[in-house]
Amino acid sequence: SSMDLVAEMGVGWNLGNAFDVRSANKTIWGNPLPSEDQVKAANDIGFKTLRIPITWEYNQQDQSPYTIEPAYLSQIQRIVNAGLNNEMHVIINTHHDDWIIPTNTEAATVEARLTSLWTQVANHFIEYGDKLIFETLNEPRLMGSPEEWSGGTSEGRTIVNQLHQASVDAIRAT
User: Fold this and answer.
1) Dihedrals phi, psi of 60, to nearest 5 degrees
2) What is the rounded distance in angstroms from the CA atom of residue 51 to the CA atom of residue 93?
3) What is the C-alpha to C-alpha distance for residues 132 and 104, in angstroms, rounded to an integer?
4) In this structure, what are the phi and psi dihedrals at residue 59, rounded to the nearest 5 degrees?
5) How many CB atoms lie within 10 A of CB 149?
6) For residue 32, what pLDDT is reported?
7) What is the rounded CA–CA span in Å between residue 110 and residue 58?
8) Where does residue 120 rank: exposed (0-12), middle (13-18), buried (19+ CB within 10 A)?
9) pLDDT at 149
10) What is the rounded CA–CA span in Å between residue 149 and residue 37?
11) Among 17, 24, 96, 167, which residue has the least CB neighbours within 10 Å?
């Protein structure tokens, strides 16, 4: 059950300000690239889940077919493997991807790119078990609007639900 899964996951560590940097240079915010030693140290002090926020847009084509750079996927895979090798649950997501705009005007383009992204990610990790979890969207919102942090608009919530479903459909299709 979901309650059993959450209990199994235990306390989690969010490995932020690394792969979620808003630049192709993932050290621009002053942190080193994540390492296997960091993940092991987190596990050694009791963390059972590793959440890896990921901004894809600086390492993904912005036009169809929206290809993710293979070297970037390899960097992420190295840290995913470190978590799994330490018997942790690992969560990867979309994080700070400003192209995810939940409006009717942008919906078709966002859905196409998001579908491509999650298809590539799911195929890349297709042999991995259920300890690797995909968080399809993180904080999708109408940036700069009065509704940005207040729950959005009815239109935005409808589009966010459609984007979640498109992502889940893409993952399951692999």
Assistant:
1) -140, 140
2) 8
3) 32
4) -130, 25
5) 11
6) 94
7) 15
8) buried
9) 87
10) 36
11) 24
Could you give the count of Cα atoms lying within 13 Å of 127 in the half-sphere of its Cβ? 3
Q: Which DSSP letter does residue 30 get?
A: S
Q: What is the DSSP letter of 68?
A: B
**Look-up of token digits 């297709």:** 126
pLDDT at residue number 151? 80
- Structure tokens given for 2: 């979901």
Q: Which residues of the chain have pLDDT under 50?
A: none
Instruction: Tell me the three state secondary structure of residue 74.
Output: helix
Phi, psi at residue 78, to the nearest 5°?
Answer: -60, -45
146's tokens: 């009065």
Task: Write the pLDDT tens digit of every residue in 86-108.
Answer: 999 999 999 999 999 999 999 99
* Helices marked H in the chain: 2-9, 36-44, 70-85, 107-124, 154-173
Closest CA to 110 of 45, 165, 53, 72: 165
**DSSP-assigned beta bridge partners for residue 93:** 135
